[in-house]
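README, section 4: Worked example with a bound small molecule

Sections 1 through 3 covered apo chains. Here we extend the same pipeline to holo records, where the ligand is supplied as SMILES alongside the sequence. The molecule in this example is 2-acetamido-2-deoxy-beta-D-glucopyranose. Nothing else about the input changes; the structure line simply encodes the ligand pose together with the chain.
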Amino acid sequence: MVGLKSTLKALFCGALALAAVSAAPVAEVPNVAVTAEFPNAIAGLTPDLISGESNKLKVTFRNSGKTDLKVNLIVGTVAESYDFENVIRNLTAYRYGTTLKADATLILPYTIKMEHASREVGLTLLADVVDSSKNHFSVVVFNSTVNFTEPAQSWIDLQLIFLYVLIAGIFVGVGLFIKDLMAPEVKTVKKAPSMTPEEREAALEKMKVLDEDWIPEHHKKSPRVVKRR
Ligand SMILES: *[C@@H]1O[C@H](CO)[C@@H](O)[C@H](O)[C@H]1NC(C)=O
Ligand SMILES: *[C@@H]1O[C@H](CO)[C@@H](O)[C@H](O)[C@H]1NC(C)=O
Ligand SMILES: *[C@@H]1O[C@H](CO)[C@@H](O)[C@H](O)[C@H]1NC(C)=O
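The generated complex, written as C-alpha cells:
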C-alpha cells in the first residue's frame, strides 16, 4: 500500500507543478468542474468555520468528458491567509474511490473539524482525480480565505437557561401532583363554601319536608342534597 503521506505530498507538489507548467501535459487533463458549498450558508456567502465543530461541505463534481473518472481523495490545508504555502495544519484526508461517470455529476461530503483561534485563514481543498489510464490529477475544490469563529456561546447559555426553566417547571408540576395525591379531602372540603346563603336556605326548606329523624346527623348539611334539587 502506498503511504497516504507520500500520496498527499505528491498531490500538493502536483498541484504546484500543475499551476506552474500547464504546457505539455503527459495525459489530457480531465474535463471536470468542481464546486464546494456549505449547505448551511446564506446564499452567495462563505460562512465562518466554527472552531471545534463539524463544518460540512457539499462537493459537486461535474464530468463533461467522454470517459469515466474516479474521485480518489479530498485533502485540505489550513494556511496563513497572507501566504497559502505557510501551512498551519493538514486537514483529514477523505478517501472516496467513487466513480464519476462520463457526462455525469457526483456529490460527495467533506467535513472540516479543527480547533483554531478566531481569525482569517487560507483554506485549500484539493481532489485527487484518476482517469482510466490511472493518471492522477489534482483538482482545486476550494481555495479562498475563511474566518474561524468560536461556537456561539450566548446561544448555548440561552439553551441552558431554557433547560433550567423547563426542569423547574417539571418540579413544580410534580410537587403539585404529589400535594393533590396526599390531600384529596382538602379539595372536597374547599368546595363546600361555594354554597350561597340562598342555596343553604333552599336546602334546609326541602329537608323540612322529609322526616328529619332518620337522616344521619352528618348528612343534613351535605352539599349533595342541594345538587338533587
Ligand atoms: C502537512 O503535510 C505535508 C506533506 O505531507 C508536510 O510536509 C507538512 O509538514 C505538514 N504540515 C503540517 C503543519 O503538519
Ligand atoms: C490558492 O489561492 C492562493 C491565494 O489566492 C494562491 O496563492 C494559491 O496559488 C492558490 N492555490 C491553488 C492550488 O490554486
Ligand atoms: C474575516 O473577518 C474579518 C473581520 O471581521 C473581515 O474583515 C473579513 O472580511 C472576513 N473574511 C472572510 C473571508 O469572511
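What to look for in the output: Residues 16-24 have pLDDT under 50 and may be disordered. The chain is about 30% helix and 35% strand.

Section 5 describes how to batch many such records.
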